[in-house]
Design a protein that fits this description.
heterodimer; A: about 100 residues; alpha+beta; GMP Synthetase, Chain A, domain 3; three-stranded mixed β-sheet; 4 helices; B: about 400 residues; mainly alpha; 12 helices; about 80% helix; disordered N terminus
């Protein structure tokens, strides 16, 4: 039985910061889901990016992978970047919206 | 999925010199303004020298550096032969210096400088074409990159023909060729490239999403068509054809500004950093330049034309470039020096990598300089024009200092 929760995965990813805006990916609302296999502890992260042409695309994906891989007892890690639904500011936490001037 | 990875990104040591040289040429071109009177004629050799120092030394140099970085982002493939950029830089820099010396001191030097620039740009254009062949994308942006490179080649060829004509080696109608050259380079390459790049960069930095792209699609098509009509009209000497081309281009520019308005309404980031202020100033001066352009076509007046070109060059083009430098250069430095440290130690945010005060001084001096110089040209006031040149020069010094500090960050 796997002891890793979705919260553990999101906490791990929250150490990854977008260097342009200065917020972590979780509070930006870029992490859509984390599916954890209860038997194997394999983690499948579903995320997006704020723009499709982001030059940091592969690096951010790699940082998420490395952050989740650091969780104790984790199995294999897979990070999937999707564009649907497209990210928008309403997905971000209130502190992000406020800091960016969206509130 | 976008396969844009670190493998596709050229190294900082390849791109940074383009920005260093570009900013130095900007500083020199602002310094050179101090030696001009506001009542010049745009066909004078001294003015042509300044225009080439500014457009080739600053604008083209920075665009080439930016394209080295952004082509893989836009096309989603790596460069065909990225190392050619090591050759392009010295050829372009030397070519600019020789050309400007030719315009200012010794016309016989013009073909030599022109040839160096021609070789640099042909290498750049062919590398772009080879990279374009690798991509499977068929977007309008990709198509625009193709067209802009085509116009660049036409612009260079006509420019080289003018250089030979001025040196007495080729019997051509220089004034007709000059119009074709100016329009192919400025409208066909510089403006089209700036439109294309800004449509990628502005939504990216402002976090604007989900906007309708009908206006920009129309803008691209109209500007491409308009430039083509003016180019052919200038070559065969049909003035009415050129006027149709001007009208088509203007309508394209209108759709571009409309698209920017749509994006601005959806902008999430409201903070007014030096980039945001520069974008606002750039588009405000672009509108002023267009309005002055209309006045010139309706009522004439060399002073109105000079002021329109001033606001286009030093307001719109300059601010678009310098504003983006404060986003692109920190990113390049961060990507090279700090991205490998993510997760291992604390890394700086991009906005921490440049002096806010220095950037603010650059912006404020430049704004005052552009407005004062533009009014000086419009009203042919020597004192206003000289004041504008002085403010722009001081702004250029702040750009030079902040740029060097950004590039040295974390060394």
């Amino acid at each position: 039985m796997c002891s890793i929760s979705k919260e553990n995965v999101f906490d791990a990813i929250s150490t990854v910061i977008d260097p342009e805006v200065g917020f972590n990916l979780v509070e930006m609302g870029l992490i859509y889901d984390a599916i954890i296999d209860e038997e194997t502890c394999n983690v499948h992260v579903i995320m997006t990016l704020s723009t499709q042409g982001c030059p940091l695309h592969q690096m951010i994906k790699q940082w998420v992978y490395e952050a989740v891989e650091r969780i104790e007892d984790v199995g294999t890690v897979e990070v999937e970047v999707v564009w649907e639904p497209a990210w928008n500011i309403s997905m971000a936490d209130d502190n992000v919206k406020k800091a960016l001037g969206g509130m | 999925m976008n396969p844009v990875s670190k493998d596709f990104a050229p190294p900082l040591k390849l791109i940074a010199p383009f920005f260093r040289f570009g900013v130095v040429f900007y500083l020199f071109s602002m310094m050179a303004l101090l030696f001009f009177e506001p009542s010049f004629n745009y066909q004078q050799m001294g003015v042509a020298g300044w225009v080439h120092l500014f457009l080739l030394g600053f604008v083209m140099m920075i665009i080439f550096g930016a394209m080295a970085q952004l082509i893989p982002v836009v096309l989603e493939v790596g460069h065909a032969v990225v190392d050619v950029y090591y050759i392009i830089l010295p050829l372009l820099a030397t070519g600019v210096i020789v050309m400007v010396a030719g315009f200012w001191f010794m016309p016989a030097l013009l073909p030599y400088g022109g040839l160096l620039v021609l070789i640099a740009m042909i290498i750049f254009a062919f590398e772009n074409v080879a990279t374009l062949k690798k991509t499977e994308l068929q977007t309008l942006t990709v198509s625009t990159v193709k067209w802009s490179n085509g116009y660049l080649l036409l612009g260079i060829l006509t420019g080289f023909a003018i250089a030979l004509g001025l040196a007495g080696d080729l019997a051509i109608d220089v004034s007709l060729m000059l119009k074709a050259h100016v329009y192919a380079v400025i409208g066909g390459y510089v403006i089209l490239t700036i439109i294309g790049l800004s449509l990628i960069l502005i939504p990216m930095f402002s976090l604007a999403h989900g906007f309708d792209e009908t206006a920009i699609n129309r803008a691209f098509k109209l500007v491409i068509t308009g430039v083509g009509i003016v180019f052919v009209g200038a070559l065969i000497g049909l003035e009415w054809m050129m006027y149709i081309g001007y009208a088509v281009t203007f309508s394209g520019v209108f759709f571009y500004i409309w698209q920017i308005y749509i994006i601005a309404k959806l902008t999430v980031r409201k903070e007014l950093d030096v980039w945001a202020k520069s974008m606002i100033f750039a588009f405000a001066t672009f509108i002023v330049a267009i309005l002055l352009g209309f006045v010139y076509f309706l009522a004439g007046g060399q002073n109105v034309l000079h002021a329109a070109v001033w606001f286009l060059f030093l307001g719109f083009i300059s601010s678009m470039i310098t504003g983006h430098l404060y986003k692109i250069v920190p990113f390049l430095v961060w990507f090279e020096r700090f991205s490998p440290l993510v997760g291992k130690e604390k890394v700086p945010m991009l906005h921490e990598m440049y002096s806010k005060e220095g950037a603010a001084m650059m912006f404020n001096f430049t704004v005052v300089g552009v407005l004062s110089g533009g009014l000086g040209l419009l009203f042919e006031s020597d004192i206003l024009f000289k004041a504008g040149g002085s403010f722009l020069f001081v702004g250029g010094i702040f750009l030079f200092i902040t740029m060097n500090k950004m590039l040295a960050y974390g060394e």
